[in-house]
Amino acid sequence: MQVKICGIKTIEAAQHAVQNGADLIGFVFAKSKRRITKEQAKEIAQIIPGHVKKVGVFVNEPLDSIKDIAATVGLDYVQLHGDETPEFCDAVPYPVIKAFSIQSKEDFYAIRDYKCTYFLLDSPSGKYRGGNGTAFDWSLTKHLSNVKGKVILAGGLSSENVSQAIAEANPQGVDVSSGVETDGEKDLNKITAFIREAKKATTIEKDRDHNDKLHTS
Predict the structure, then answer these.
(1) Range of the domain at 207
(2) What parts of the sequence cross the membrane (predicted)?
């Protein structure tokens, strides 16, 4: 299970997430209370080891600006949370994670037009695109068989519900921001707990699949 800790603003939070097993670190460059500059992100990125991937979050950002920020910071993925078209995504010279807000199964239809590395399924937009701390109906993901292995689940996740979310949606990864914060700032204890529960849930699912195969063989 890939675990992404998003909205990182400090070296301390980044180091803690990495030390506890995070697979991806997210920097927000869109309008948000977690927004940071490319210079700040570059400084943090320098302490992130190569096996942990760096993700930049953008909302309707011009392509030239995305390229500039990605090159400055050394991003591995570009995450698009706005109204970007399939053609725009294809023009981004980095692996793309395209975010979609989910309210009903009809919201999945648009995904068919995109050819992205991952699809991030998030709760409906609030004040900002993403990071609003609310969950959607995870059972809706059963309508997404055509992108199996490419789904990252987001929206309202925390250490208390991430194992249930993984069991219901069977995603490739999980993404958390507000769910590991206290009073709007990253909480190191919550980061530890979230990563532990997400990784533990993956082990439980693997054991269950193995037992099912034994019983049917």
Answers:
(1) 2-216
(2) none
Rounded Cα gap, residues 78 and 174, in angstroms: 16
Helix axes 188-216, 162-169, angle to 10 degrees: 40
Q: What is the DSSP string of 81-149?
A: -S---HHHHHH-SS-EEEEEE-SSGGGGGGGGG---SEEEEEPPP-SSSS-S-----GGGGGG-GGGTT
**What single DSSP character describes residue 170?**
-
Tell me the residue length of the chain. Answer: 217
Going by C-alpha positions, the residue among 85, 31, 46 that lies closest to residue 63 is 85
| Consecutive H or E run containing 2 | strand 2-5
Split into its structural domains, the chain has a count of 1
Residue 31 sits in a domain whose CATH number is 3.20.20.70
Which residues are known catalytic residues? 6, 122
pTM of the full structure: 0.88
Give the DSSP letter string of 8-73.
--SHHHHHHHHHTT-SEEEEE-SSSTTB--HHHHHHHHTTS-TTSEEEEEESS--HHHHHHHHHHH
Give the CA-trace dihedral at 74, 77, 83, 87, to 10 degrees: 100
